[in-house]
Amino acid sequence: MRNICMILMMALVVSPLIPLAFSEGTIGAPEGVLRKSITSIKFLDAYFGTSSGKIEVGPGDKNVPFTISMANVGTQDLTGIKGQLLLPAQFASPDGRSALILADNSQKATTGNSFYLTFFVDVKEGAEITNYSGTVKVDYSRLRESGERQDFFDFSFKLTGDSTVNLTPLTPYITSITNNDVIIKIANGGSAPLSNVDVILKNDQTSVTATSKSKNLENVIFDKTHWDVGTIPPNSAESFSFKIFVPENIKNEPLHLPMEVTYYDAHGESKTVTRVTDLYINGLVDPYVYGVKVIDLSGKQTVIGDILNQGNSDGLFGFVTLKPRGDSNIQESTQYIDEIEPDSPVPFNIPIGAASNGEHEITIEIKYKDSLRNDHIITYDTTIFVNAPLIANTGDGDSTIGIVVVIIILAIAAYIFYKRRRATIGKTS
User: Fold this and answer.
1) How far apart are the C-alpha atoms of 177 and 184, rounded to whole Å?
2) What CATH number does the domain located at 41-158 have?
3) What string of DSSP letters covers 302-336?
4) pLDDT tens-digit readout, 285-338
5) Which of 63, 244, 346, 403 has its CA 20 to 30 A from that of 419?
6) How far apart are alpha carbons 289 and 283 in whole angstroms?
7) What angle do CA 118, 122, 126 make, to 5 degrees?
8) The domain at 287-386 falls in which architecture?
9) CA 87/CA 90 separation, integer angstroms
């Protein structure tokens, strides 16, 4: 009986030491399987943005959100969550140079769910776009437990830079009744790249504001509506092109092209923005010269002809100029014809002055302005035949009367000479 008691007493003394001996076998076990210290918070991510999503941030941006994402992995809900952010010298608090970067979460972090702390920081102008390291201190309390707990987490994050999307037409003016070549420049004016840029033309009425000036889009014909642009580095641009045909009834008004641009930002997240490119539809002025010939008009040799506008818009402030070519001695002259209306011939008549008989090579030059007040000049080369009368009206008096007077004077002189000669013969006989 005494031996049995001794054995029981030795067992009670040695048994507490057995777990310590076996615990040596857990050295080097992965953390999380057998953790040295049990915590209630697990760090998930650190990024510029809010709980709704990440945003691009570049040097010089002020008061931008910086979010720490965490999860409650403990067995109790957490309350009174507060955080203090420690970042490199390139980042500071919006409240001042020496102010702390603080945030709190007034909501309860339930067991097994994630929660966020959103801080606000200023990014200095000289900050490089690269990866940085930081530390966050988290203070919190657990329900049904007195006192406050504190955890520290080291993390890395990236200053991504920001990207901007701008569309600019390199050919802002197009012409109706014409197959127009249009070039659009898509520019990235930011400090982060635009990756896998894809552009789609939304040529339906639900894509534009329902105004009278946007309803013309459905009548325009495009040869393309989708473009794969690729990657656009920071502060650079790419371009894409297509053809537009505008019908005859659309002229002298703007054309709004809504473009849906999809790309991947610096976080690797897909983004879609809509940009509207504005073009202006200029009416077509297409003058055609015909019926050029020479006639005698009020005693003057005159070049006449007609101009037919085959377009759909008026040519404004029209002038017609007659120019000699080669060895022609026709005098250059200009006539103002005002508006050149579509489908209505506009006649012109220009005196040629003192020109020699025969063939003359000439140029008829038509100068006008379109609805944008841009100057246009077209030329028409042809050959005319001048057959002037022997007696031309020079404009210095009636030369015919002068010739008649000279003939009368000569006749009188001849008569006087004849009378005197007869008188002389009579005396000598």
Assistant:
1) 21
2) 2.60.40.10
3) EEEEEEEE-SSSPEEEEEEEEEEETT--PPPEEEE
4) 999 999 999 998 888 889 999 999 999 999 999 999 999 998 898 989 999 999
5) 403
6) 19
7) 140
8) Sandwich (2.60)
9) 8
Sequence-distant (≥ 6) Cβ neighbours of residue 277 within 8 angstroms = 167, 168, 169, 184, 256, 257, 259
- Who wins on pLDDT, 8 or 193? 193
CATH: 2.30.29.30, 3.40.30.10, 2.60.40.10, 3.30.420.10. Which one for 166-282?
A: 2.60.40.10
Cα 178 from Cα 176, distance rounded (Å)? 5
pLDDT digits (tens, 9 = 90+) for 219-272: 899 999 999 999 999 999 999 999 999 999 889 999 999 999 999 999 999 999
**Residue 97 — very low, low, confident or very high, per pLDDT cuts 50/70/90?**
confident
Whose CA is closest to 324, among 366, 389, 381? 381
Could you state, in order of their start, the residue ranges of all structural domains in the chain?
41-158, 166-282, 287-386
Give pLDDT tens digits for 118-168.
Answer: 999 999 999 999 999 999 999 999 887 778 899 999 999 999 999 999 999
Distances (CA, A) of 249 to 203, 288, 309: 19, 21, 16
3-state DSSP assignment of residue 166: strand
Answer whether residue 50 shows pLDDT above 90.
Answer: yes
Q: Is 279 exposed, middle or buried (0-12, 13-18, 19+ CB in 10 A)?
A: buried
CB 160 within 8 A of CB 97: no
